[in-house]
UniProtKB/TrEMBL annotation:
Keywords: ATP-binding, Cell membrane, Membrane, Nucleotide-binding, Translocase, Transport
Protein name: Spermidine/putrescine import ATP-binding protein PotA
Gene behind this protein: potA
Subunit structure as annotated in this protein's UniProt entry: The complex is composed of two ATP-binding proteins (PotA), two transmembrane proteins (PotB and PotC) and a solute-binding protein (PotD).
Function text: Part of the ABC transporter complex PotABCD involved in spermidine/putrescine import. Responsible for energy coupling to the transport system.
EC number(s) stated in the UniProt entry for this protein: 7.6.2.11
Family: Belongs to the ABC transporter superfamily. Spermidine/putrescine importer (TC 3.A.1.11.1) family.
SMART domains to which the protein is assigned, alphabetical: AAA (SM00382)
Sample GO molecular function, one term: ATP hydrolysis activity
Any Gene Ontology CC annotation: ATP-binding cassette (ABC) transporter complex
Catalysed reactions, semicolon-separated: ATP + H2O + polyamine-[polyamine-binding protein]Side 1 = ADP + phosphate + polyamineSide 2 + [polyamine-binding protein]Side 1
InterPro entries in the cross-refs: AAA+_ATPase, ABC_SmlMolc_Importer, ABC_transporter-like_ATP-bd, ABC_transporter-like_CS, Mo/tungstate-bd_C_term_dom, P-loop_NTPase, PotA-like, PotA_ATP-bd
């Protein structure tokens, strides 16, 4: 069993009458890439600041390596933070920016040079030592900010939406770069984002938050394929979410039809919600599938067509490489393993 490097226990945080975190408890494992994911205002950045020591919780404790750090100031924690605004020193060159923290620690010139040179190599900026900050691209500036944080050898690196200011192509490149750096150094990364694709691409573990409450925690595959509730299903990628009734183990009714599924353990005739991902719907000829519907719109997305179709008062989103004309009637097939059943519960939204 992997060791927990951070344990957050029963954290509450309010700003005036606004409750930001509501009894939040979370374990973060050593050498893990964990992402806090959720919409604006869900409490993910506040959680990060409490770990860093920039915010104090109203109630609860933060444990690091089995020591209570709840009331420790930021500079006494083995944690460094990289923000969306990199806060680099414009009057210093790249080498001086990265070396800044080491000089504060009064390391020898030789040791500083060794550490900075090594870090420049890791972030692919060797030979850039004397370049000014203003001469760098956004992605290069972000690498300098990461190098400045990592050169101090923190046990944990906290990243608060550090890719938010980058364009799409550079953002995708930096996602892979960050994951590579984290694996190479074996440091625990705690990453904050509202970008679902970013979280799925980079994380070992995703924590989905809403209104200060953890909705689900798991691997990217678990979060995507087995959402715990309709909020998670809707927030992580596109989904068709329908009301249904669990007639029996492996048998569900929705869209006025009975389907076989792979879920069990529900009460007979229990009202549930059904999730079907758009890419899991198969298009067949009219009257050849389980459902007939009319195509309302078709958008080409590069690798697939995104279609909106309707049957009676229900709408379906379908992702398929097969083209269908607007106005045409198509059949839909949904296999048992592509039907995910969720309990119908009221969540904190």
């Amino acid at each position: 069993m992997e060791q927990n490097i951070i344990e957050i226990k029963g954290i509450y945080k309010s700003y005036g009458s606004n409750d930001v975190l509501d009894n939040l408890s979370l374990n973060i494992r050593k050498n893990e890439f964990l992402t806090l994911l959720g919409p604006s205002g869900c409490g993910k950045t506040t959680t990060l600041k409490i770990i860093a020591g920039f915010e104090n919780a109203d109630k609860g404790t933060v444990i690091c390596n089995e020591k209570d750090i709840t009331n420790l100031p930021p500079y006494k924690r083995q944690v460094n933070t990289v923000f969306q605004k990199y806060a680099l020193f414009p009057h210093m060159n790249i080498y001086e920016n990265i070396a800044f923290g080491l000089k504060i620690k009064k390391l020898s010139k030789k040791e500083i040079e060794k550490k900075v040179t090594s870090m420049l190599k890791i972030v692919s900026l060797s030979g850039f030592e004397k370049r000014s900050i203003d001469s760098l691209s956004g992605g290069q500036q972000q690498r300098v900010a990461i190098a400045r944080a990592l050169v101090n050898e923190p046990e944990i690196l906290l990243l608060d939406e550090p890719l938010g200011a980058l364009d799409l192509k550079l953002r995708k490149e930096m996602q892979l770069e960050l994951k590579k750096i984290q694996k190479e150094l074996g440091i625990t990364f705690v990453f904050v984002t509202h970008d679902q694709e970013e979280a799925l691409t980079m994380s070992d573990t995703i924590v989905v938050m809403n209104k200060g409450v953890i909705q689900q925690m798991g691997t990217p595959e678990d979060i995507y394929n087995e959402p715990a509730n309709s909020f998670v299903a809707d927030f992580i990628g596109e989904s068709n979410i329908l009301d249904g009734v669990m007639l029996d183990d492996y048998k569900v009714e929705f869209s006025n039809r009975v389907f076989e599924c792979v879920d069990k353990g529900f009460n007979k005739n229990e009202k549930i919600e059904v999730v079907v991902r758009p890419e899991d719907i198969k298009i067949v000829n009219e009257n050849k599938g389980m459902i007939n519907c009319t195509v309302n719109s078709v958008i080409f997305k590069g690798v697939h067509y995104e279609m909106e179709a309707s049957e009676e008062n229900k709408k379906w989103i379908i992702h398929n490489t097969k083209y269908a004309e607007v106005g045409s009637i198509i059949g839909l097939d949904i296999y048992p393993e592509d039907i995910h059943i969720m309990k119908k519960v009221l969540i904190n939204e």
